[in-house]
């Protein structure tokens, strides 16, 4: 491709990606899937990699830094980022209102106008825009000095790298709360379970942990979000009210929480608090209260602030979603990779309108640290649909004869021995793991559930309960058995009707052509979650090439370290796994890209294959070329750019030689598609 053409394409992609960002984040009306979006970004990355001088700082690819940092720099906030006073009940909210009126010299029966907003439970950040361009992003830190997390904040797609304003202000400091949407939080923890990594206790910790990563590629994979709620220093514009500030921020692409509004008087603010508390479980993010702010900025100024918090604002907290109950038993659950997780069986307790009977205890270290015992009275916390957890023991209620809890020495599902496994990475300590692998029914069931789950093969109707039943009845013992399921097998089982059986068979059929990244993910290779599966799919292009990739090729892949490399190579070397993958293929499961990229590294290049390739089938090689934008011709002719000659290449090779075409071997072909 000519450089001028490439530039046009780059500009077009940037504009299109930015348009999708706005549709997705600012307007909440996406028109393409995440996969399609990722494909656009990857296409832009490929073009920019060839022409790095065309990269601009506001390119969507610049959201992710290439190399991890050694440490974060520090940033001094030009105006301190204050905290908020808390109120826990109505009378405290009323007291706040009285103090505001006193401070403003208003009579007790006056009605103050308040801007009321949800209080997101994440972490506060400040973004500095100079002439509309994002230059710095920092955490709140101690309020005066925060950490420079610019590169990580840039990975958040709802943060514009350039403001949507024709004449941007010379300086704008925007403040907001970064959080992790619950959907992403649940997915992240599920993935961490799979990879034997510690779960995040709640979305707030997950957001903070994700934003404070030295490698911004990790932050990018976490899909954080944020709402803006205020400003710091501004040059070139003055505002009259808090709400006007919010509306202005929104107009330049910095969205605020859509539930924010203006009310008159403290009673309306209290009603707002109740209304949002009712709503909190239906939202996709954590709230811990509402913030009540005097709307008029002139009034804010005259009220002023103490050294810690402003006198014009109040955090009116929700009732914590906690309850007190007794642990009547502790059971060990076996995860997909064999890790034993303790779970408390509780005397049922109603928390926030839901009856809770179980709570996770996470791992042995957690149980020991909190010294949780059977018989203990404990505080249980639940929020939204996050798994309830035991936050602590009420020690003075402990019965006399209790013993510290230890996970069992044999797997509760299959009786096999358990072994200690040191957990690497961000995780400290060790886990107990059942040694029976897929011979353990619990691990086998979890593997099937994982295979069928939404982020993997997405087979609707094959959830936990049904996997349990089908496995216990001996109908499916491994993932490949799924494709041998017959309608009449299902209808003989309890709870299945003609329609439910047909639906499942149809869903299984529909799953036969997954995207390559989903297929890789569904195999459950240790340490390879959804994100790395995408990276591998992008790099290798076909499952055949991934299966034959050697350590050297794998370890050169971003995010794939030596341990993961060993896991991948080990997985495909194992004969049991090979057989399962072969049986999947034999049942018609064909992973691949659904949509060839029109413009790619091999755009406009025409390939012909002759002879036999050893590393992959003809079909796979063809798909790989197509995925990079190239074309396959059936015969040798002048328009052919590369003739790929495998073993025992025949007449096509001879003809190509005559025409003087470029003939390459399998190794050279791999170099071409993978890059050097
Ligand atoms: S205003 C001086 N508004 O709550 C006013 N804060 O407990 C500063 N927060 O550090 C904050 N949602 O991280 C404000 N709508 C909102 C908020 C909000 C969440 C957080 C923020 C702040 C903390 C104070």
Give keywords.
single chain; 676 residues; alpha+beta; Helix Hairpins; D-amino Acid Aminotransferase, Chain A, domain 1; OB fold (Dihydrolipoamide Acetyltransferase, E2P); 6 domains; 5-stranded mixed beta sheet; 5-stranded antiparallel beta sheet; 24 helices; 20% strand; binds 2-(butylsulfanyl)adenosine
Folded structure, characterized:
The protein has about 675 residues and is an alpha+beta fold. It folds into 6 domains: about 5-65, Orthogonal Bundle (Helix Hairpins); about 90-315, DNA ligase/mRNA capping enzyme (D-amino Acid Aminotransferase, Chain A, domain 1, 2-Layer Sandwich); about 320-420, OB fold (Dihydrolipoamide Acetyltransferase, E2P) (Beta Barrel); about 435-510, DNA polymerase, domain 1, CATH 1.10.150.20; about 515-585, DNA polymerase, domain 1 (Orthogonal Bundle); about 605-675, Rossmann fold, CATH 3.40.50. Helices cover about 35% and strands about 20% of the residues. The chain contains 24 helices and 22 strands. Strands 2-11-10-3-9 form a 5-stranded mixed β-sheet. A hairpin with a 7-residue loop joins strand 17 and strand 18. Helix 16 (about 515-520) packs across helix 17 (about 530-540). The protein is globular and about 100 Å long. The mean pLDDT is about 90. Bound molecules: 2-(butylsulfanyl)adenosine.
């Amino acid at each position: 491709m000519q450089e001028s053409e490439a530039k046009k394409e780059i500009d077009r992609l940037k504009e299109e990606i930015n348009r999708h960002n706005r549709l997705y984040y600012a307007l909440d009306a996406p028109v393409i899937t995440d996969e399609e979006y990722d494909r656009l970004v990857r296409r832009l990355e490929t073009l920019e990699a060839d022409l790095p001088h065309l990269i601009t700082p506001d390119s969507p690819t610049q959201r992710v830094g290439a190399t991890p940092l050694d440490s974060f720099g520090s940033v001094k906030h030009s105006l301190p980022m204050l905290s908020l006073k808390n109120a826990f009940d109505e009378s405290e909210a009323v007291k706040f209102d009285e103090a505001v009126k006193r401070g403003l010299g208003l009579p007790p029966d006056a009605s103050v106008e308040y801007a009321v907003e949800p209080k997101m439970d994440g972490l506060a950040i400040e973004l500095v825009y100079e002439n509309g361009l994002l230059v710095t992003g920092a955490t709140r830190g101690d309020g005066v000095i925060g950490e420079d997390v610019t590169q990580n904040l840039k990975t958040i797609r709802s943060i514009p790298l350039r403001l949507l304003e024709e004449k941007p202000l010379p300086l704008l400091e925007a403040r907001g709360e970064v959080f992790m949407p619950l959907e992403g939080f649940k997915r992240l923890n599920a993935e961490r379970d799979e990879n034997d990594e510690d779960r995040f206790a709640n979305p707030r910790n997950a957001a903070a942990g994700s934003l404070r990563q030295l490698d911004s590629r990790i932050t990018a994979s976490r899909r954080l979000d944020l709402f803006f709620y205020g400003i710091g220093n501004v040059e070139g514009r003055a505002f009259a009210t808090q709400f006007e500030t919010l509306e202005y921020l929104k107009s330049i692409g910095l969205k605020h929480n859509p539930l924010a509004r203006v009310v008159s008087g403290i009673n309306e603010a209290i009603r707002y608090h109740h209304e949002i508390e009712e709503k909190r479980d239906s939202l996709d993010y954590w709230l811990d209260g509402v913030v009540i702010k005097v709307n008029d900025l002139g009034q804010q100024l005259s009220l002023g602030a103490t050294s810690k918090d402003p006198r014009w604002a109040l955090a009116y907290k929700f009732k914590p979603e906690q309850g007190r109950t007794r642990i009547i038993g502790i059971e060990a659950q076996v995860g997909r990779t064999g890790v034993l997780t303790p779970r408390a069986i509780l005397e049922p307790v109603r928390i926030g309108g839901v009856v809770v009977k179980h709570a996770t205890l996470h791992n042995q270290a957690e149980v020991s640290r909190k010294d949780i015992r059977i018989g203990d009275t404990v505080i249980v916390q639940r929020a939204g649909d996050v798994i309830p957890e035991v936050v602590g023991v009420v020690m003075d209620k402990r019965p006399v004869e209790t013993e510290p809890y230890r996970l069992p020495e044999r797997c509760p599902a299959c009786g096999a021995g358990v072994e200690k496994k040191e957990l690497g990475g961000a995780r400290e300590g060790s886990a107990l793991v059942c040694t029976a692998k897929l011979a353990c029914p619990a691990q086998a069931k979890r593997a099937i559930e994982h295979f069928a789950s939404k982020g993997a093969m997405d087979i609707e109707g094959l959830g936990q309960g049904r996997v349990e039943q089908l496995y216990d009845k001996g109908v499916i013992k491994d993932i490949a058995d799924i494709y041998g399921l017959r309608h009449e097998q299902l209808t003989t089982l309890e709870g299945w009707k003609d329609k439910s059986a047909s639906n499942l068979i149809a869903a299984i059929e529909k799953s036969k052509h997954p995207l390559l990244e989903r297929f890789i993910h569904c195999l459950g290779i240790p340490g390879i979650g959804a994100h790395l599966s995408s990276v591998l799919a992008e790099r290798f292009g076909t499952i055949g090439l991934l299966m034959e990739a050697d350590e050297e090729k794998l370890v050169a892949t971003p995010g794939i370290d030596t341990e993961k490399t060993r896991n991948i190579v080990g997985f495909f070397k194992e004969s049991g796994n090979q057989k399962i993958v072969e049986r999947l293929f034999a049942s018609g499961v064909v992973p691949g890209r659904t949509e060839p990229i029109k413009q790619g590294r091999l755009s406009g290049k025409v390939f012909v294959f002759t002879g036999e390739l050893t590393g992959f089938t003809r079909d796979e090689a063809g798909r790989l070329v197509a995925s990079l934008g190239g074309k396959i011709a059936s015969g040798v002719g002048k328009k052919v750019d590369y003739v790929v000659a495998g073993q025992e290449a025949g007449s096509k090779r001879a003809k190509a030689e005559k025409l003087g075409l470029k003939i390459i071997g399998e190794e050279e072909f791999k170099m071409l598609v993978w890059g050097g």
